[in-house]
Amino acid sequence: MSSRVVLLGPPGAGKGTQASLIAEGGAGAHIASGDLFRKHLGEGTELGALAKTYMDKGELVPDDVTIRMVLERMEEPDARDGYVLDGFPRTLEQAKALDAALEDQGRGIDAALLIEVESEELVRRLAGRWICRRCQAPYHEAFSPPRTTGCCDSCGGELYQRDDDKPDVVRARLETYERQTAPLVGYYESQGKLARVNGQQSVERVTEDLEAAFGA
Question: Exposed site from 117, 127, 145, 159, fewest CB < 10 Å?
Answer without folding.
Answer: 145
